[in-house]
Amino acid sequence: MAYINRWKHVWLLRSLFVFEFLLLTALLGLIGYANPDTFTTKLRLDGALNGFNSSPAISTGASTPYVWTTTLTKYNLSLSVASFLLFVVQGALYILEFYVPVVAVVLKAALMGAWGFSVHSQSGSDYTDAKHPSPSPWYLRKSCDVVYYQSNKNYCHEAKATFGISVMLLACYGALIVLAVVSLLAKKPPGMEKKKGQDVEDGNGSDNDSLELDGGARW
Question: What's this model's pTM, rounded to 2 decimal places?
Fold first, then answer.
């Protein structure tokens, strides 16, 4: 049973840990800066002036497309903080040798689902204005050079980076799940089976010797 707790390709596992840490750190910085509405509305207005999407002036409250809401930014920030805290816990469990593959599968599958929703929302559509339909945010489909206001160019790059790093984090979680499953399905080395058989034989031999000694003592 102890073998199922072992990781295959430990060097790859540690490399993915480092990659995950770098991605989460970057996302915390980007999303923390964007919260609650540092540039979301500005990018929407910039797109509206270029005819890429609806204008903030024609939709308020519940009618605002989710991709342009502060709710999404707050969700992403909360998810980033939670993911980083879980990463710290993961590191502690790994050091204590409690971070086994089955735990990784459950944890990363949950995080992958949460970040999958985030990526889907970040690339969400805006059909509020029938004259300017937008299947996804304009900054994901176009160069940042097309901004109406040059002051929004850096914001455009930050929004692109947030989406790109979120996708890379999804890929990282997927790779960790695959590695965990491979570790769970890995067969025991032949030497381990042989050693186990020898231990059983040695145990039987010891029992027989004990019986013979006991029998001799009685006679």
Answer: 0.84
